[in-house]
Protein 1
Amino acid sequence: AQELGKSADTKVTVEKKWFETLSLRGYMQVRYNRLLETNPDLGCEQCDKSWGDNNGLFIRRGRLVFSGNVHERIYIYVQPDFASSASTTSNNFLQIRDAYFDLAFDSKKEYRLRVGQSKVPYGFENMQSSQNRLTLDRNDALNSAVVNERDLGLFFYWAPKEKRDLFAKLVKDGLKGSGDYGVFGFGIYNGQTANRTEANDSQHVIARVSYPFEFKNGQIFEAGIQGYTGKYVLPSVTSTVIVNSDKEYLDERVAASFVLYPQPFGLQAEYNIGTGPEFNKLNNTIEQKSLHGGYIQAFYNLKFEEQIVLPFVKYQIYRGGKKHELDARSYEVNDLEIGIEYQPFKNFEVVADYTISKRRYEDAVKLNNLQEGNLLRLQLQVNF
Amino acid sequence: AQELGKSADTKVTVEKKWFETLSLRGYMQVRYNRLLETNPDLGCEQCDKSWGDNNGLFIRRGRLVFSGNVHERIYIYVQPDFASSASTTSNNFLQIRDAYFDLAFDSKKEYRLRVGQSKVPYGFENMQSSQNRLTLDRNDALNSAVVNERDLGLFFYWAPKEKRDLFAKLVKDGLKGSGDYGVFGFGIYNGQTANRTEANDSQHVIARVSYPFEFKNGQIFEAGIQGYTGKYVLPSVTSTVIVNSDKEYLDERVAASFVLYPQPFGLQAEYNIGTGPEFNKLNNTIEQKSLHGGYIQAFYNLKFEEQIVLPFVKYQIYRGGKKHELDARSYEVNDLEIGIEYQPFKNFEVVADYTISKRRYEDAVKLNNLQEGNLLRLQLQVNF
Amino acid sequence: AQELGKSADTKVTVEKKWFETLSLRGYMQVRYNRLLETNPDLGCEQCDKSWGDNNGLFIRRGRLVFSGNVHERIYIYVQPDFASSASTTSNNFLQIRDAYFDLAFDSKKEYRLRVGQSKVPYGFENMQSSQNRLTLDRNDALNSAVVNERDLGLFFYWAPKEKRDLFAKLVKDGLKGSGDYGVFGFGIYNGQTANRTEANDSQHVIARVSYPFEFKNGQIFEAGIQGYTGKYVLPSVTSTVIVNSDKEYLDERVAASFVLYPQPFGLQAEYNIGTGPEFNKLNNTIEQKSLHGGYIQAFYNLKFEEQIVLPFVKYQIYRGGKKHELDARSYEVNDLEIGIEYQPFKNFEVVADYTISKRRYEDAVKLNNLQEGNLLRLQLQVNF
């Protein structure tokens, strides 16, 4: 705009203003999980701390995203969450989810190195933003690999230009895409997950391939495979439990992902197997054990002018330990969710998710704990 | 600006830039409370943690406000405070005060639902921003209903367009208005107050009516009435104190508010009565007891071109428990404040507030504690 | 831009948009300290918590700076760090580093009062931003005077217009300047350092003179002297240690600083002497003791078109207590650093710093603790 009135051949170097380089956006989710609740003792630590007894309205996520292409080779992304707890009683502090920069090796940004705290490229649903996900929480099976989905590391991503454009389009067009984590990804990271202090001398290593196929009829299908290995140090163990002397266990998984993008019918399935620490109540010991689980989700994308309605159904299972929780808590999960997302306009969404849940979760404090129950979960989300 | 040079009848859809939709503003208050202090043992936990012994300069509030009409029906408001403590020794973390969105039901936004953490509409002074208040702290009587003034809930507000404009004008013109919390407000909220985890299964319920009358001579008078009820769970109790088995007490109040806006003479008075938990030192028990108290404040609005001077005097009393404090601490408050606010220009303010205070505040640790004293309180405030 | 098409003599008062008044910028540093490490027990609490055993990748600093001239007399500066810990296990919370405003007494802003939390003007390297410093951490000797370099106070600065322009130019031109802390500075501050609660009734007092000389050949040389005095209350003392009954000690230092700015050869040296608390292992007592130390650094500024390379060497010593650490830990430091900073373009920097370190640091828990070792330290920094 500064160049108006000048002849076209005058050379003017206009330095970009800060607000043209950096931008701010965000979203917030407010929930209530107590309607039609049949069992107030049924909880899910990994999902949402406001299930069950003595809970009410809850801000599940509040995000501010500062990002921008600050140089033709450098992209920065800093995302604080404003619904993080600094202790069990004091909530809603600002804590980082993402804080990374991408260093591109070529002008088309097909080859990039991501440095800092960012998502560990393990699974499709883990990569997909909670802003776009249909169900209120991620599946136990793959999300228990990397709680909060992130870690501090160096990640290399490669994708050809046309696939990068496709990854962007799958989000922009409301097709519930994952964003661009490359067709090929490879990384090393601390392994104790986001915002936790590194606890050993070894790094986790991960690799992923995920390829979106475009068919002539316009349908898009993505298939991916990913795996990681590393050594994990347990963060919280009851004092009476028998545990490896350094609390260190092998943490190794491989997963397959399949996605049919919703034009209008969508289908999504993932499964993973692996090994990790798990509490055994029979001998009060945290053992190295195998684990497995996954989910399948079907959904439908209905548009009425500006309004969008997405009914969905999801079934998930998980059998194994959860390394991030007390005593690498032992889990047996069978959950069925039936729900609907309604977007009256792009800045606002309502989700109703009826959950039929059967969960055994046991540690040294809760030795025999099988919980079954149903609940209607409601979420209001604002996007800005 | 992008349309310059095009003919007027060319239709151009210009998507708004992020910085045209969202905006950032804020303020900061730096205080010193030790001048002319006659009693270093006199404190006020609810007011300002830097009264008395071993205190010095103090950042009382630091606020960044991210807000905007992100859609014709959606307004978002995210306000972190940057002077919040994560523990008794580690200060100046960023913690949310407000994080809400307004969903308007009509194009004039006369009917709105506010979702998230926001101010509980109880009292005029509680609604008025600290950026605009004359005295350094809010009155004990009404503020002890909702510490930090906020909670997580759903609030419905209604006000006709002309009253909405008036509420906005009362702030913009420096008349120390409260902002727009509707002529009528109704809400449900968790009840444990801002940033605290919900602790029982019941919600608080509140209703409020506040109407500003405009007289022919230009004077504006506002009268309001408000009341709430709910069950509150005590957050901190000395182990030896006798308390209800679930620490739950009835928490119920009603208040009346009167404001004559300062053109140039202003007058403000509020009073509330109710019931809540209160420590009884005679039997070492936290009992359900009645409470009452309020304040009256007179002030004058002097303008010398850009400069503004506002002398004020305020008298307040309170007799009852404070549910948020240790053992629902028992209070008897009689305070007189005489002060002046000086704004040399709109971005900067100085307040001097001479406080003559008589406070009995007692819990299981401080059984007999009547403190009397005077102090001169100083505040520098920057608005940006 | 709004005035286009209007005749030049039409008077239009255009109120500035928020984004023209306020701006956002920042930087982030990601480190790895474990390459070529010869002694995993060698640590440096004041420098970087990721030295040695059980450490990996680490975000050392992440900064967002909100600043602006919000009025012709008022400048605000709010800088949260997004790599702050709220406890030993929970990292990456947002916590304030700077939160201040400058109130100018004249239109040229030669006389300013800085109010809030800001850098205490003690030493050149302490004033210089970590965004610009060559070595990965500040020297122990002067930085142990004010950990995190900041405190809550009132600081008066004076510098003539041409020196203010020079201070700005020394940063903008990549000459590793300190920024503008005046030719003369004077201040009072709480004395417990940034983000810590004041712990006694007395303030620290500081004064500083620093003058940059410009020579005819273009070389610029700056010399400074500074000193402070106050009483400091120890924040953490082992229960068995003998300590002053109020944990209060005299805290008093004076320092000299010399800088030859790198055109292309740079030289920097500082030294300080003083007194403060220090742990004495012979009698298990924290005593009032003298302290001294400083550093000398030589460096070279090489430019290849857009690229910049800066090799450097630094030697430092320190002998004394560190008041901020457990038991006012006793220190004997001898460190040599040889390194290089490489900026391929202005938004990105790589530093390699080979450190040859010999450190004795002892408190009541570690009574005999001399650690020697070498390590290669790597840092990637992004500026935005």
Protein 2
Amino acid sequence: MIRVAVIGGSGYTGGELLRILAVHPKVEVTYVTSREYAGKPITLVHPNLRGFYNMNFSQFSFDKLGDKADAVFLGLPHKVSLEYVPKILEMGIQVIDLSADFRLKDPTLYKIWYGYEHPYPDLLKKAVYGLPELHYEELKNAKLIASPGCNATATILAGAPLVASSLLETYKLISDVKVGSSEGGAKPHEGSHHPERQNAIRPYEADGHRHAAEAEQELSLIAKRDVKVSLVPHAVSSVRGALASVHGWLSSDISEMDMWKKSIEFYKGRKFIRIIRSNIHPYPDPKFVIGSNFADIGFAIEKRMQRITMFSAIDNLMKGAAGQAVQAFNISRGFEEDEGLRIPPLRPA
Amino acid sequence: MIRVAVIGGSGYTGGELLRILAVHPKVEVTYVTSREYAGKPITLVHPNLRGFYNMNFSQFSFDKLGDKADAVFLGLPHKVSLEYVPKILEMGIQVIDLSADFRLKDPTLYKIWYGYEHPYPDLLKKAVYGLPELHYEELKNAKLIASPGCNATATILAGAPLVASSLLETYKLISDVKVGSSEGGAKPHEGSHHPERQNAIRPYEADGHRHAAEAEQELSLIAKRDVKVSLVPHAVSSVRGALASVHGWLSSDISEMDMWKKSIEFYKGRKFIRIIRSNIHPYPDPKFVIGSNFADIGFAIEKRMQRITMFSAIDNLMKGAAGQAVQAFNISRGFEEDEGLRIPPLRPA
Amino acid sequence: MIRVAVIGGSGYTGGELLRILAVHPKVEVTYVTSREYAGKPITLVHPNLRGFYNMNFSQFSFDKLGDKADAVFLGLPHKVSLEYVPKILEMGIQVIDLSADFRLKDPTLYKIWYGYEHPYPDLLKKAVYGLPELHYEELKNAKLIASPGCNATATILAGAPLVASSLLETYKLISDVKVGSSEGGAKPHEGSHHPERQNAIRPYEADGHRHAAEAEQELSLIAKRDVKVSLVPHAVSSVRGALASVHGWLSSDISEMDMWKKSIEFYKGRKFIRIIRSNIHPYPDPKFVIGSNFADIGFAIEKRMQRITMFSAIDNLMKGAAGQAVQAFNISRGFEEDEGLRIPPLRPA
Amino acid sequence: MIRVAVIGGSGYTGGELLRILAVHPKVEVTYVTSREYAGKPITLVHPNLRGFYNMNFSQFSFDKLGDKADAVFLGLPHKVSLEYVPKILEMGIQVIDLSADFRLKDPTLYKIWYGYEHPYPDLLKKAVYGLPELHYEELKNAKLIASPGCNATATILAGAPLVASSLLETYKLISDVKVGSSEGGAKPHEGSHHPERQNAIRPYEADGHRHAAEAEQELSLIAKRDVKVSLVPHAVSSVRGALASVHGWLSSDISEMDMWKKSIEFYKGRKFIRIIRSNIHPYPDPKFVIGSNFADIGFAIEKRMQRITMFSAIDNLMKGAAGQAVQAFNISRGFEEDEGLRIPPLRPA
């Protein structure tokens, strides 16, 4: 049993980690912290977990962590992780960081997208970008895993087979993303107030979204050339779920069958990718992955214009956050990548 | 491994059974039928199950069933089960019937509530009402399990500790139930059309709902006297979830603490009952059981009027249908009652 | 043109008043205040009203009010209205108060339900309870109108024809109310956070809700005897809409046709009451009154138990708040009661 | 008073026309037909309109129409309108056709997009495309108005100021549209079943949507060059509302302020266009136009990539269908374009 800590356990990602880890056969959750709820029962904040945890939230301390954990999931805000990661690594504890602080290889990008000078460029090199479909081998024995952002995950998984195929006229892609409200986290604010959020179809950060940086890094690696991504997110009424519609212009004709084969081929052997082609449900829909770690991938081609749209559908808290983090952790530990994650999606939900 | 068949596998209850059984460690699903989709892949109808089933739906035949199954879950409409159950039992195969056809002990009630003369009064005696919290012992080795209705389950679980406590002025209860749209099944109709159903708060069958018969049967057993229940269901916007608010008048004062203790005591040892009392979430809410087999039970007392309301929250497809059927099956087979059902609820969802 | 002020114009009730008054042919909105948004455009807070208001919110001052308004709608929190009403009345300006501060005739009830000693028992006598269906004549020329609460409005309108008919076994009623999220106002809080509120079916204040006091006052007047009401509200997923299900036990048989006639008779001539009886939509549903001032009233009788449930469906911001306030104002000014309110409900919505 | 008929009055567009026309001061609704509901009360199908119509639906007959109407709104399926329009025009009755049958000027496009040879190319020339923001002058005295499709309306209104500005690198646009469920009409089907539709984020007709033909026709007219539009619609959870995100690549830098001015300039004097730029709500959202005929227009520019996204938000049943039809009718009759349409949007809704 690997002893696991969840730092920042009171948010939605923390809660989702606790939900998964509660029934993960190779893991024991030993330490869960929350600044706001320290001393209070986990189930006060996460009433769904009644019966699964008797523990209280703790205040964080490096000493306690050292006593209690072999691996730690960090569910902290961007920039806050920086204060924890180097020290925890020094203590010999594995880190799976769900913030953005170690996702980008090029330190100068932190200045541009996150507004701070990155203090640990060396750690950026050591960190493995925790998207197992692209970095499976590197994840084995990884000590620092930088778990991808949800909009980035959706965009990359949709775009990867396309940029890999050398079919594009230009390598400037539009990723028009639609997301549920849980993506915004557990803190109430004006825009998340139910009467304001329900029935909204609301663009946000539409003049440039940070996850584009991750998407460009990863897609450029695959394409072996510079790929640019304009990521335009929209808040819609769902609670869970994200759909990325990645639009591009084809340089030449390709049949749907060939594109389907290329997609199948690209993701061969990856357990959480399902390539969609069906009469009744021809395209991916987050509805069919809710509660699971699957990413459903599909596409549409408009022949007269040589326009292709790649779609990917994920549960933003699972494949977009906690589920993917556990998947990467599994690989790093030599477990099956779907250990503790063999959960069929809920339907209807 | 017990070989299990699901008859009527294309509806929501069938889909939910398949979802649970796909990862149930003691069970192998060998035979799944659907009149409408025979010959077509299970995953065409249930796209969430892509990757879990490669099988097609079959046409039903008693011979095939005999070859393939040790136990069968029947997800058929009311009255249709009657045509299957006696013959399947004769074949020595265990039946878990999710229709209403074997739930009521008194055959005359079928005439009143379902409009038909029950042809097998003897089987009614043999059938075990599959609510494990009330019939745990009888379920052991049961050959015919009549799995309860969802509104009945919610009403009975809420009402049971109350009628058991001899605190009521009269034994006429109002069960005001609020349910999500999945309770209406997978067939589209006028009232289930999204623009009509979304944002509805719509009473239905408000002049008498059939599940009252089950609720009266079970609550009378517990109270050891005649209990009457008026069940008034309302369709609300959720997809999953049912909340029963069971209103009664108390004959004497009781403190919240005492009522809480009585509830705890009543359900002692039952793994899927959680008695709710909390600062942040003081009452049950189906939101916190989505995707799981839990029933959350709580209550409120209005002192000045001696009014008590017992609440129970369930996922109508899990504890209200498929989950409960598997729970009862587990007990009948000597497994842990939560085998294959140790799934924490999804949150937020 | 009557010059009208809206005090507390940045909340949902304020916004709804502004929406109605913008196109009310007999009214000019001259003064709109907001503590939080003073100096900022009305349309910054209410983007739906772009094109209808060029005004900014003002800080409140009695002098300004005196200069600008003949009538004032007060959209202030409970207890805060007390500080404004006496002085405004002295200034000779008509007050339509949407808080609870002048709704109850018996001053001792304020101690019990609102926790304060009412300082103006004389004004309580002068105030007219602004439910036009019950107080039409008194509203003519009323100087102080106490506009009813939304849950109270729904409960009273449903219960009135029933208690008027002398058909009840006992005069203790259960009003099981289901409400949309806009009822909770415009301020975000934990429970209103979209991921928490969406798909909830959540009882609240279930041990006694304040609006019961209004309901008891008004229903006792009609019944000419003491009526007790236990009001149990539930939050459901809709944004707008409230349904009250008022449950009672009948003392004797009554046919549906007779009950329908009694209801029709009771509300004869009242423009905003629609008595529902239909094949396709047999019961009221807030869905069919969204955006309008209508209250749809209907009922169900379960004969075997002599249980009756009266239903009323309203838009909580219209008939439950701003619409009803304007309706009462219209009557007080000798206008048609539906002046500026002849808006058919939106469907589907 | 102009006597008006609504042919095909039982669907959502028909219902919305009836809702508007019920309170339109210059119009009397004299004749409403429905094949399915002939002989039955209008309010049986449209319960929101109780109190506004005492009429029944009629079977259609040209004779009756000739007796009763000066103008007719046709809410019929595509291709069916063809059988009515020429004859009605011959009778001297004005036609506002809400189908696609007279929207396209080039008859060959009907073969391509709708699969039929257009039998009346001459009428295509006479028909006026009923988008008042672009064809105001032509609409005056128009005898045949072809009312635009909802996705086309959203796409054109968003794209028009952009293609007018000569700022684009290429004139191939992506219109990524998100729509509510009412766009699919009043007939229930598998995909509209509430448990299937709620929480969906589902692309449909993603390999080419017919409304692209209208969008290309109109945008090419404005751009005075060939504009291509790839329209990719997505079903989201709302009931009402459509948002078009029209993505393009800029050929040169333009500041937000300049683009804002260009948009303001382009739509100068048009009553139902609101150009959005605000701190709190920076982009259009259909939430803020619900129940009204407004189109809110805004945009975002991602400087580093010279990507522009134009957004337009409409209520698909109002500006996307019935409201726009009445607006065009108003202009054709010399009324104010907002006659009967001066309704502020509902909020929150």
